[in-house]
Request: fold
Amino acid sequence: MKVSVWYNNEEIRIEEVPRPKPGDKEMLVKVISCGICGSDIVEWYRLPRAPLVPGHEMGAEVVEVGKSVLAYKVGDRVFIAPKVPCMKCYYCKSGHYPVCSNVRERLPGGFAEYVLVPEALVENGTYRLPDNMTYDQSTFIEPLACVVRAQRLAGVRRNQTVMVMGSGMSGLLHVKLAKAKHCRVIATDINRKKLEIAGKMGADITLDAAENIPEQLAAESKRMADVVFLCTSAMTAVDQAWKCVDKGGAIVFFAVPHPDKKVTIPINNFWTRETRIVTSYYCAPPDIDAAINLIETQTIEVDDLITGRLPLQNIAEGFRMVIEGHESLKVIIKPQL
Ligand SMILES: [Zn+2]
Ligand SMILES: [Zn+2]
Reply:
């Protein structure tokens, strides 16, 4: 079978490997759709594990099950989480599932014709797709779950003012989810085309990030933002975010700057204004359940975020589209095309 092996963003090769045979407690799935994630193109984050087969936003069909697997059968349509927390350790019990100390197995990358699902993920990481959810829609389960988690940790509530800095894929999902919660949403980006899209997807106000954002926000709005989501790694956005948050508000690092960059926090100012700084990393089972429900009930529409579908052999082109980012939002790889 064919898999795509990522060495770095310039070197992605299609390689031939034997099709795995599932053991008694494993199953084999055929990948129908797998989304390229913003995190797949972040080299400092991925290089330590390279070469690797990426792809964790996967909709697949079960094609072979081990003889002890009773919960799934051939033909089932599924989403599989890339890893599952143990639900029993200190961190899981306190709700910090993404930092679980006992992650047993990881799902092999989805940019492949087939994926062998390990036992732990057959047990707790596999979700049957609702009948009305397409495979392409299922590629949004994981990214939306991460957004659900970040908004949960920030405590986003109805009628708040939410600012989303960076209107790429994840920024736009934040816009949509905050609108679904009846918030007033302000979106920023340096790319005018993306701002236009953010407006179409529900942002009440869009601001050009090349200009002075805090000044523009103050002019447009009586209050600053209750919650600011940083969905870009740009340092200029971090500096602007500090000045956009209202008293008692929160700044959420959904994306972070390159590890070489030093972030300086105006802590004295934040101290007297009760400003919170929140980080949100990845997602957890309750967020995945919530994301499936949001897509299934069409509370969050995702089809309008898909800008490209490519066969596996064109994956390098797909990565280029996401890296350049001008016109593309979600690019989906379809290994069966
Ligand atoms: Zn992702
Ligand atoms: Zn745990």
Summary: The mean pLDDT is 96. Residues 2-140+302-334 form a domain with the Quinone Oxidoreductase; Chain A, domain 1 fold (CATH 3.90.180.10). Residues 85-86, 88-89, 91-92, 100-102 surround zinc ion (ligand 2) (CB under 6 Å).
